[in-house]
Amino acid sequence: MSNSVVEKNLEETTSAAGAGDQSIWAAGKDMARQTEPDAVVHAAGCKSQSFWQRAWSIIRELSGDDAYERYLAHHSACHSGSMPLARKDFFRNQQQKKWGGIQRCC
Amino acid sequence: MKKSLLSLLVWLAVAMLGATAVSGIALNRGETVNALWFVTAALCIYAIGYRFYAVWIATKVLLVDPSRATPAERLNNGHDYVPTNRWVVFGHHFAAIAGPGPLVGPTLAAQFGYLPGTLWILFGAVLGGCVQDMVTLFNSTRRNGRSLGQMARDELGAIGGIAALITTLFIMIILIAVLGLVVVNAMKHSPWATSTVAATIPIAMLVGVYMHSIRPGRVLEGSLLGLILLLLAVAGGGWVEQQPVLRELFDYSGLPLAWAVIAYGFAAAILPVWLLLAPRDYLSTYMKLGTVILLMLAIVWMQPSVKMPAFTQFIDGTGPIFGGTLFPFVFITIACGAISGFHALIASGTTPKLLSNERDIRMIGYGGMALESFVAIMAMIAATVLDPGVFFAINSPAGVVGKEAAEAVAKISSWGFPVTVEQMDLLARQMGEATLFARTGGAPSLAVGMASIFGSAFGQGMLALWYHFAIMFEAIFILTTLDAGTRVGRFMLQDMLGNIWEPLGRTSWYPSVLLSSGIVVAAWGYFLYIGVIDPNGGVNILWPLFGIANQILAAIALCVATGILVKSGKLKYVWITALPLFWLVIITTSAVWEKISSSDVRVGLIAAADDLAAKLASGILSPEKAASAPQLIFNQRLDAVLAVFFACMLWVIVLDMVRVCFRYLYGKPVPPLSEASYQLTRLEKA
């Protein structure tokens, strides 16, 4: 990509973010508003759930306990033509992938 | 309008409270300080940095754009690119960046007094480390989650990419060696600690089998089972200690333990991940989060007094734990608690592939590092609530204060930090250890500090249990880093060897797996072995070397970020990464210079090698010392070469970055920005 295209993109980005002439106070509030929890994308964030249900689903998602269910949901949405992996195979694949790169720091 | 006035007043109050707390701990002389002031100062500084500096960087400099689709959305494949809840990403990111570094570094740096380390942890993080993590996360998100090495190659050229790769491999080797040394020193002649740490291996394997075969993928069940077994192992270690026969079975000196750790590292690198590494990581993550929260609650509840003075006389470079003056070694020693180059590897690669929206970059990049820095502050508190005499008795190697207890306490008391043999014996008995003298490496003193805080909060009678819980907690995630690091080192090496002969690059070809794992383990095993036979404790040499390497990796990450800022036409904001970079270049270069040129044998590697060689030649060494002297001399010279090599890598990439920037500014062709093009998000209304 050439420089000019990137600059054009950046300009678009600036206007899209609308941050050009805001004070830092306004910008901060803007970000705070945008990061309200109801903006979360994932299943964990359904508004109809109670606090405890949400906390539990976040714990499950954090630990990877519900990874297979999420994989099945993704699979039926995007690749419904093929058979999904069995739970055991999925889990092994996932771990192999995860530990193929840098995962832990000093 | 009313609301903004209220928030102005609230933030003014936070700023004033923070300023009071910082000046309180900075100006205090000669009295103990309530640890709550440290916590207050830290929380206020992070809050202000997060609310103002991070917002300003996100909106004015980076131009974070919530309407832009992230790689996780555009490339969603259900595996590694997955748009994820921001709290979940935060959890994964923090679990990945939080290692033993911020626990060990501040403990060692406490030899200068509490103030220098604390100030650097706070301001280094807010102005340097958090910015590095956040900017790197942003840059990688805009580039489809590319790694630091790839970004260095794309944005600066081939030289930058190679320098980043080689430095990463070396830092990994030094890191594993020094962490191995910390574990070995914590287990030395301690049947309780050794049996508990040994028990973590079959426990991890059991959990691995449970999650792999018995109940596949049931992570929470498996982890809960493992955590219960781990706690039983801590209590069981106390029982082992009481049994004369079993006691003997787990009572080892440093060298056999070092060999055991080396053998373990090799086994862990070649065993399937589901059996050992993955379950151990689950356990260590929960243990880490749980203990950090528990420690925070205990500090807030008990409000222990910090007894260490603000400064000690050791700022002149004569410290017993490691030699070297306050500048630059406090910065090198703290390392990960303020700025960690390693984080740039996590912030590029894994985390950006999970972000569902760019606006989460501030919370995950900046906020994640602020929390890590807070862990470092708690480690500093745990080290400095000990009586300074006790702190130095635990952390000073026998080579500095003498082998005999009476000799050591006389020497330490003569520095103005009174301590008695009875006091140390009583403490050792309370902690269930044979002795606490010369237990270098930071882990035992951190465990004593944590045990005394936990003990005063949750029951004095269980001090020994708390001590060994803390040791197990440190050991379990040190061993996770050791496993994971050896594996990554193996992959990197296979990647390089694959260029020489293609089959060596195949990650599943067993001869290549054995060969490359063997090379990596031998490399860190060598430094671990030397560290164990070194009468000065090994930490004295290895930790500064690790700090230098880590800070140089951070400098490389900041070089990439600075180059991208300049090439994006944001020259007037370039100081946000250029100033921390400038500072890192100064401290690492001066540290390397001190390490090779200092005539003080406790600082200068070459001076130490020459001194030992002269003593060996004149025949004044005891036969035991003479036997290990040639190895130590060789090692000190090798370390000097390594330090110079690190510095050269740094300067090569800094000059390369400056060259690219000047070419850009003078309108000459440079590698183009590799940012992926804009695409509107469909995930939600932006």
Automatic annotation (TrEMBL), chain A:
InterPro entries: Sel_put
Polar residues: compositionally biased ranges: 1-16
Region (Disordered): 1-22
Protein name, entry field: DUF466 domain-containing protein
Organism name: Candidatus Nitrotoga fabula
From TrEMBL, chain B:
UniProtKB keywords: Cell membrane, Membrane, Transmembrane, Transmembrane helix, Transport
GO cellular component term, pick one: plasma membrane
Domain of life: Bacteria
CstA N-terminal domain segment(s): 34-591
The keyword Ribosomal protein appears for this protein: no
Signal peptide: none
Main location: membrane
Cell membrane is among the record's keywords: yes
InterPro entries xref list: CstA, CstA_N
Topology class, membrane: Multi-pass membrane protein
Compartments reported by the entry: Cell membrane
One example of a Gene Ontology biological process annotation: cellular response to starvation
Residue intervals passing through the bilayer: 34-53, 94-114, 120-138, 159-186, 192-211, 223-240, 252-277, 289-306, 326-346, 366-386, 465-486, 507-529, 541-566, 573-593, 640-658
PANTHER family reported in the protein's UniProt record: INNER MEMBRANE PEPTIDE TRANSPORTER, PYRUVATE_PROTON SYMPORTER BTST
Family per similarity comment: Belongs to the peptide transporter carbon starvation (CstA) (TC 2.A.114) family.
Name of the featured protein: Carbon starvation protein A
Organism (species): Candidatus Nitrotoga fabula
Gene name per UniProt: cstA
